[in-house]
Design a protein that fits this description.
By secondary structure, the chain is mostly beta strands. It has one helix and 14 strands. Strands 1, 2, 3, 4, 5, 6, 7, 8, 9, 10, 11, 12, 13 and 14 form a 14-stranded antiparallel β-sheet that branches.
Length: 239
Amino acid sequence: MPISTYRQFGAWLDDASASGSGEGYTSIGVGHWRMLGSTQTNLPMLGVGLGVSDRMQVGASVPFYRASYEGGSASGMDDVYLNAKYTLVDPTLTLSEFGLAISPTMEVLSAGSPDGRLHFAIPVSVELRRQPFRIYGSAGLFTRGSFFSGAALEWSSPAGAILTGSLTQSYSLKDDAVLDSMGIGRQRLDVSAGVAYPLGSMAATFVNVGRSLTSVEEGGTSLALSGGVSFRFSTVSNP
């Protein structure tokens, strides 16, 4: 990969809901990003989550990428995330429908990362339900040097489709005299919109499109496009 003149950013956005014990999901998707002088396509993007108790869910995402940039290309396994979400307040069990969760996450960056491959994130997520709307957001730290926050508004239509709009921001905590001299800012903002539609009772398809509000010269993306299919499953046998 080419030497990057970008800040150390990172974002995480999730709700405070978790799968019940023995229930889970798998997903497969594709993503495409356009940056300054480069593009990246992730295919496949694999995801899995499983409820190990009524309050805890474990999950993983494993994407594979191909990047093209001026002078070459690269491919392989992209950043891998292993996480456990613990629901401190379950939104389905409170009269206010408010939820609170913490999701300690291990981040294994792709080969060649200048600051090492193994890092951690500590996201805290909140959720509020007011049918047909749901609001949720996350904030926390990446140990490789960034603070992040984000929020999303979700609407469930009578036809079954779920529409979501989100805004995330990341602030680089590391000092870098070279980037400061180049006028590259410490903050990155991204906006996205998505739609999910059920395929029967145990599957759904989804599409998301977005871009950075930060300029591409400062590490933003001019296009972020992803989509795929997710499947629910249960390891619990009905009596």
